């Protein structure tokens, strides 16, 4: 049984989802506490692949609010790159997708806690929607509502 911590509903509205992956996160103890308390901001987060220092993938712009009782030395770590736990094949898949599709992106759609209590994220390979696509989608939703009401 998975417990959803956060679901980015805006992804479905702004993007066409092409593919999904599931990945673990490398976190420090206080970060896990803050994420379970939902004290974070992931709206502007995106995935970046670094092949120069081994095969690593990171979440950029993942803000975790720092608790007040934490020591001063580590209080600067509110905004840091979170490493993703992925297989080499999956990291190469992300890298190839980003190189092939210049107008596409890889974003975090959902954070959840699995059966073991580990925090994981669902990564989506997305392509941005145009304004007219969004308008057509809204029209279809309104038509469905009106048909249901009749």
Detail the topology: elements first, then pairings.
Elements: E1 3-7, H1 10-14, E2 15-25, H2 29-36, E3 40-41, E4 46-50, E5 56-60, E6 63-64, E7 82-85, H3 88-100, E8 104-113, E9 119-128, H4 131-149
Antiparallel strand pairs: 1-8, 2-7, 2-9, 3-6, 4-5, 5-7, 8-9
Question: In words, what does this structure look like?
Answer:
The chain is α+β, with helices and mostly antiparallel strands and 150 residues long. It has one domain: Small protein B (Small Protein B, Chain: A, Beta Barrel), CATH 2.40.280. Helix content is 30%, strand content 36%. It has four helices and nine strands. The chain has a seven-stranded antiparallel beta sheet with strand order 1-8-9-2-7-5-4. Strands 3-6 form a two-stranded antiparallel sheet. The longest helix is centred in the C-terminal third of the chain and has 19 residues. The protein is globular, with a radius of gyration of 18 Å. The termini are far apart.
Rounded Rg: 18 Å
Strand order of the largest sheet: 1-8-9-2-7-5-4
- The assigned CATH architecture is Beta Barrel
Q: Which blocks of ≥5 consecutive residues have pLDDT under 50?
A: none
Quaternary state of the chains? single chain
Largest sheet: 7 strands, antiparallel
List keywords for this structure.
about 150 residues; alpha+beta; Small Protein B, Chain: A; 7-stranded antiparallel sheet; two-stranded antiparallel ribbon; 4 helices; 9 strands; about 30% helix; globular
């Amino acid at each position: 049984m998975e417990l959803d911590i956060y679901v980015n509903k805006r992804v479905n509205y702004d993007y066409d989802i092409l593919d999904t992956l599931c990945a673990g996160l490398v976190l420090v103890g206080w970060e896990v506490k803050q994420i379970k308390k939902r004290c974070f901001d992931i709206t502007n987060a995106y995935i970046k692949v670094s092949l120069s220092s081994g095969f690593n993938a990171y979440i950029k712009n993942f803000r975790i609010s720092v608790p007040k009782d934490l020591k001063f030395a580590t209080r600067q770590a509110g905004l840091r790159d979170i490493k993703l736990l992925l297989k080499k094949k999956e990291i190469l898949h992300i890298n190839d997708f980003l190189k092939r599709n210049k107008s596409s992106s890889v974003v975090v759609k959902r954070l959840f806690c699995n059966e073991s209590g580990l925090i994981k994220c669902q990564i989506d390979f997305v392509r941005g929607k145009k304004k007219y696509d969004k308008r057509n989608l809204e029209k279809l939703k309104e038509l469905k509502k009106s048909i249901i009401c009749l």
